[in-house]
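Re-run with default settings, no changes from the original entry. Doing this only to confirm the output is reproducible before filing.
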Amino acid sequence: KEPAATIVETLKDVTSYEGEDAAFECRLSRETTQDAQWFLGDVPLQSNEMNEIRVQGTRHTLILRKVTLEDCGPISFKVGQHTSAA
């Protein structure tokens, strides 16, 4: 069983204008096969035409494309028992 990854670089608050992209980034202590999940409020996010979710090694990135006022709210990233929010 692999040791749990922890969040070593937490999310930063992002301010963006309607129509712009908003990017959020989190870094883990190690690469992991554990489920990592992004949320907007309580809604789990999937990678699609509006959201781009990238994983490069220990770096996890969420890009919200062309944000609207409806996208305003808390973004959180969860892996195992660890959570970071912005």
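The chain is about 0% helix and 45% strand. The CA atoms of residues 59 and 68 lie 26 Å apart.
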